[in-house]
Amino acid sequence: MTRVLGVVDALPGVHGTGTAGDTGLERFRLSQRALPGRDLCEVSLRTRLLGAELAAPLLVWGNDRSLARAAREHGVGLVSSTPAPDRPPLWLARVELGGDTDLEPDGVVIELGAAGRGAIEAIAATVERMAPLPVVVSGGGFGMDATDVRELRSVGVAAVDVGGSAGRWGVLTADAVAEAVVVGGLPVIAGGGLRDGLDAAKCLALGADAVSFEWPPDLEALVHELRVAVWRCGVVSPLALTPGYLRA
What we know:
Layout (H helix, E strand, L loop, with lengths): L6 H4 L18 E2 L16 E3 L2 E3 L3 E4 L3 H10 L2 E4 L9 E6 L11 E5 L7 H12 L4 E4 L7 H9 L4 E3 L11 H11 L4 E4 L5 H10 L3 E5 L4 H14 L13 E2 L1
Parallel strand pairs: 4-5, 4-11, 5-6, 6-7, 7-8, 8-9, 9-10, 10-11
Antiparallel strand pairs: 1-12, 2-3
Helix pairs in contact: 6-7
């Protein structure tokens, strides 16, 4: 029997075991309204993230100039380690743990991998050095749990990109999003193995403020998929999505 998830049981209780290629989002289906009550063109994806006005709650990762141009054209954020002359509304420079940048971005993203002793101190130093620009920390494809999010929040990180796992090791993306949302206190970006706009909508329903994709092949199609998913849920904006729109 299909179960509609409520706020209480959807967030802390989404954990499960993953297989290769899983993000945890496979456990959910989005609810659908046969009578959505509005036309597709009435759906607005606009949102604010880190002080920027975005046309959709999306960040794309990649250094290709064509991707930067597409990000500007579609009004979404960009994460890159190279200059972005085609500057989108939000441009975050990708830096190494303890590293710096000579670019002039709107903020930076630190991508964690096998971070060892002293990592949180290095992040705190970057936050202090980069102020007032925001510092975002990504799980780097292995995810992060609630304890990680609390530590990052305590040193002044502006947002987390959970950078969840899509395999047999690490925190699955859906679980990482759920834990970060429960911790609260800072924006949550859902990244890690997302495939399409439907996955994006599921993450937003779990409580993420935005989603991130690495090198999406067709950004226009991705934005359209997200718009359709929001519309079919019967809401006018992704801001209205809640765990109640997910079925397990």
